[in-house]
Design a protein that fits this description.
Helix content is 16%, strand content 21%. The chain has 153 residues and is an alpha+beta fold. The strands form 2 sheets. The protein has a 3-stranded antiparallel sheet with strand order 1-4-5, covered by helices on one side. Strands 2-3 form a two-stranded antiparallel ribbon. A hairpin with a 2-residue loop joins strand 4 and strand 5. It is elongated and about 60 Å long.
C-alpha cells in the first residue's frame, strides 16, 4: 500500500546531494604547464603529460591547491594535512590517456558547511548546508561534434 505524502514526510527526512564542478581560474592545467586558454585551436594545448605518454611525470599546479584551500576555508571545511590523487579509469572520449587523476577517498578539504538565509512564510530563517568534501581533479578535454553537413567528403 502506498503512503500518503503527509505520512512519507512524517516518516522520512528528504536529503538531497549535489555535485558541483568549479573551474579554477588558473593559467595552466592541473598537472602540467599547458595553457587553459579558451578557444585555442584543437590539439594545440597538449604535452606528453596531458597525453599520458610513458615517462611523462605530472607536477601538481600549486595555484590550484591555493585556490582549492581558499574555497575550503570559505565553506568552513577542515583542511587535510594529507590528501591523495588516484586514477579514475573509464572511457573518456575527450581524454587521450583514458583516465582522470582525481581525489575522492582522501580529499584536500572536508566536513564543511555553508549557512544561508531563506525567506519563509514565518520570516527569514537560517539553514545550514553541509559540505562533505572539496576535492581536486584534472579537467577532461573538450569534445566537438560536427554535423555531417559540415564535413567535406
Amino acid at each position: 500500500m502506498a503512503l500518503s505524502y503527509e505520512k512519507v514526510i512524517e516518516k522520512y527526512e528528504p536529503v538531497l546531494g549535489l555535485e558541483v564542478h568549479v573551474e579554477l581560474g588558473t593559467k595552466s592545467k592541473m598537472f602540467c604547464g599547458c595553457s587553459t586558454e579558451f578557444g585555442a585551436p584543437p590539439n594545440t594545448q597538449v604535452c606528453p603529460v596531458c597525453l599520458g605518454l610513458p615517462g611523462a611525470l605530472p607536477a601538481v599546479n600549486g595555484k590550484a591547491i591555493e585556490y582549492t584551500i581558499a574555497i575550503g576555508l570559505a565553506l568552513n571545511c577542515s583542511i587535510a594535512p594529507f590528501s591523495r590523487f588516484a586514477r579514475k579509469n573509464y572511457f573518456y572520449p575527450d581524454m587521450p590517456k583514458n583516465f582522470q587523476t582525481s581525489q575522492y577517498d582522501e580529499p584536500i578539504c572536508f566536513g564543511g558547511f555553508l549557512d544561508v538565509k531563506i525567506d519563509t512564510e514565518e520570516g527569514v530563517k537560517d539553514y545550514r548546508v553541509e559540505i562533505e568534501r572539496v576535492h581536486m581533479e584534472e579537467d577532461t578535454g573538450k569534445s566537438l561534434c560536427h554535423q555531417t553537413s559540415d564535413w567535406n567528403w
